[in-house]
Amino acid sequence: MSTEPADTARPGVAPGSRRTAGTMFAALYGDLVPHDWLGPEPENDAYSLFYHRSLAMGWLDDVGTVVGGGAPGGRAAGAEGLWAMNDAGWGRPLAPGTARSAPAAWFQVEAQAVARDRPLPVQPFLRCAGDSVARFGTLRLAAVQLLLPVQGLAPSSRPSGAFLPSMHSVSWFRESGPRSRARVEVGVDSGRNPRVPAVAGQLTDALGQLNQDVFVCASYEAGSPRTAPAPPFHDGFWNGPPLHGVTLRGELCEWSLDAVGSLAEVIADLTAHLGVRSPLLLTVTRSARA
């Protein structure tokens, strides 16, 4: 079991002095039922599960890890990856006043600098989060809330238009069955930065022009979704509170963390090109069917 505290979310600094994109955070909402065979005190907590899954997939940045501890003969090991670990936990509110909308699970990493031809790694991040939760129990997912370090993307050095780095993986979703499509509300909020409402029309136009059907936007309006949970962290953690947002309504190709991650990567690329230079709060909530 990890010895790292997992009761509160806090900004972390990646080991070493290499440039990073910023803090990436995921909160998964819904009913989480632990596996009955695990008992009251499972061997692995959320931090440990996420750490080892990230390591197994080759996505963990653990440069400077020492094998052998402080004993003579200990050696530096590890490799560069997509993120460094910060923290993780199960079902506890992370900030005062959020008890009624506490996430079932949450994960926090420091995303490493993003190459110009790669998207912010939200899909692999959510893949590790989902796999970690599945090891612990069964989650009936209702909403996903993400903190995206859009300020870490340098649009001047990145491709634009149909060649957005986030567009390289959308073909994966083209085999999704038509019955898998899910109605969703997508909240995009730039906190104290007023940029997102100012470019809302350009954002939805750009989404419609891309050759993708991961998310088909039907309408949008100013403000955050009424059904969105409050952010499970303090305003000072990002650029909060969520004051400047837009709600997109439409259909996701499937209700999965993979699809949410793909949409998040596209929105991060587009908003960076549209001048957003601050962390972005993205909330995707499944809508009740009419």
Describe this structure in words.
By secondary structure, this protein is an alpha+beta fold. The termini are far apart. 20% of the residues lie in helices and 28% in strands. It has an eight-stranded antiparallel β-sheet with strand order 4-5-1-6-10-7-9-8. The N terminus is likely disordered.
Structural class: alpha+beta
Spatial strand order of the main sheet: 4-5-1-6-10-7-9-8
Structural domain tally:
1
What is the element string, with H for helices and E for strands?
EHEEEEHEEHHEEHE
DSSP helical segment count: 5
Q: Helix fraction?
A: 10-25%
List keywords for this structure.
290 residues, eight-stranded antiparallel beta sheet, 5 helices
Short overview:
With 290 residues, the chain is of the alpha+beta class. Helix content is 20%, strand content 28%. An eight-stranded antiparallel sheet has the order 4-5-1-6-10-7-9-8. A two-stranded antiparallel sheet has the order 2-3.
